[in-house]
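Sample entry (328 residues):
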Amino acid sequence: MRTEPTARHRRSLPVLIGASLAAATLTLGAGAIANAGPAPDRVEALNAPGLVGWATENGGTTGGAGGPTVTVTDEAGLADAVQQDGPAIVQVSGTINLSGMVRVGSDKTITGGGTITGNGFTLRESHNVIIQGLYFDDWDDDAINVETESTNVWIDHNTFGVGYDGAVDVKRGSDFVTISWNHVRGHNKTMLLGHSDDNGSQDIGHLRVSYHHNWFDGTEQRNPRVRFGNPVHVFNNYYASVDGYGVASTEDAGVLVEGNFFEDTDDPFHLGEGSSGPGTLVARDNHFVNSGDGEQGGSVASIPYAYTLDPAADVKSIVTSGAGAANL
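Predicted structure, serialized as tokens:
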């Protein structure tokens, strides 16, 4: 494990710090994004402040930095703003009830402290997107669906209530994703990675996601459930009264479960799930309170990026005081 050379990741900072910085980020970031591609994975990266994990790779993730800031208050305005060409920072104000899934284009930051209900966001072949500081509740499909080879996505400091399907699902060859500092309360199918057992031809070599400092608060399953991705990094999350299971590694996935705090969670992690065959899982430096030991086996590919691991025993207090939209 390499340590992060500068600031710790304990609190993600807002993406837009000022117009001059945002403009400079765009000027520098445009070349990095243009040069990003499937090979090589590791190029010089430029990243939004506070970003850690897989979304820092492949040229980095800056979202809509450098673009105009647009405030939206209804579905039509939101859909128009997130589908425009070019970078943009979209501030969600108030509560917006969506009649269907809203597709998000590339080079966007969606933030602002507002609430999304009814449905959610779909990223399809989208690149360089940040969704940060929002509330999601009562969605009829997914709250956030990342699919079809979308890359460099950061989903950070959001709060999720209860909806129909996934809170955050990543699938169909998507890659270089960080999911951090989110609070998920009482939802069932929380975070799916890889949508089906027969999609290996698209997914193998992709689906690389980091899950860190999330609060799984009375959730049921898929925290996350993983297919094919290797390595998938699950670190410094707090699992509180998870009723079904925490992490499942299936279908040749490789998952590193590291430095998490499991409390009142009988099945913190295991291999295989339902009809899906087992992957591999390495667990280390986790903390357990009134919880099972978990199941692990096999080896996992090495983590390529710098990160600092908080002591597992401190994760409960760190995450409960820092996760969710109110703590951005």
